[in-house]
Design a protein that fits this description.
about 55 residues
Length: about 55
């Protein structure tokens, strides 16, 4: 079960193009944005960041 970039952007309160940049790892998000994205995905910040290390 996934969500679209637009859904993620809406849930996190960020622009859809920024969500795209995050997905492609070309943006440098702030801690605040990372927390918003984690909340939007129903993850803890630790879970979100541990996925990046894999």
């Amino acid at each position: 079960m996934g969500i679209t970039q637009e859904e993620l952007a809406d849930r996190a309160g960020i622009d859809r193009t920024y969500a795209s940049q995050l997905e492609r790892a070309i943006a440098n998000p702030s801690l605040t944005v990372l927390c918003k994205v984690a909340d939007a995905l129903d993850l803890t910040l630790i879970d979100l960041l541990s996925d990046c290390a894999a």
